[in-house]
Amino acid sequence: MATHSGRLEGKVALITGAGSGIGLAAVHKFLAEGAKVVGVDVKFTPAAEVLRSNPSVLLVTGDVSQEDQVREHCFLAVEKFGKLDIACLNAGIMHGVQSWLEMDVSLLDRVYNVNVRGPWLGIKHSVAAMLASPSKGKDCAIVLTSSVASLHSEPEFSPYNASKWAIRGLGNTAAQEFGKHGIRVNTIQPGVTKTQMYAVGDPALRAFVEGKNVLKRAAEPGEIANVMAFLASDEASYVTGSTVAVHAGQTCT
Known about the structure:
CATH class: Alpha Beta
InterPro entries: NAD(P)-bd_dom_sf, Sc_DH/Rdtase_CS, SDR_fam
Shape: globular
Strand order of the largest sheet: 3-2-1-4-5-6-7
CATH architecture: 3-Layer(aba) Sandwich
Protein name: 3-oxoacyl-reductase
CATH superfamily: NAD(P)-binding Rossmann-like Domain
Keywords: NADP
Radius of gyration: 17 Å
Strand content: 15-25%
Number of domains: 1
Distance between the termini: 28 Å
Organism: Gloeophyllum trabeum (strain ATCC 11539 / FP-39264 / Madison 617) (Brown rot fungus)
Largest sheet: 7 strands, parallel
Number of helices: 8
Structural class: alpha/beta
């Protein structure tokens, strides 16, 4: 069972992809650790909707690929809770296995709009909101969600693989560019995780994917959220520009 240290007490966080899966687990974890949260997603599951009655949470329907909306979400944290300390840019989409030669470029555009343009815009406007906060960025943190797919690639999965490699580049660049303000930027690489998409997948495929890691199982979303919370907290005050593997040793196999 996860322990709660209050390590995010007094912090205000923006979490994208907050409607389900890892993002929703992050909302619960950040709240448990004392943060106030603005959660963004294109839609919210019933499990997320119950949080609307919590005064420490503001759930907003929005599209992370639309700049005007991203700007609004980031500054909504400042308007609602007085500041923005943390941006957990987690929203992302996947696609089915498909031959490169048979794939329409529209799929690449759709994946990149969410998985690359989304965090690029999220960094741009969350940093602006952090600099407009009383801290002027000092002790603020950004956490990006990449994937184990950014360590190795699978055939017939080119848009997703490329997008997750790109997120690593965004994180490393942002860490260098905004460190002067005291803003830390780190990227996590989750492995297979028990999200909704995972639950409805083919059981044989699930077993095959789980067999690739050392622990021979999928992660619970909360296990990924625990690492997000650490990187967002002051306990990780000397961690920036890092890419943190959270995939049960998959690259060891």
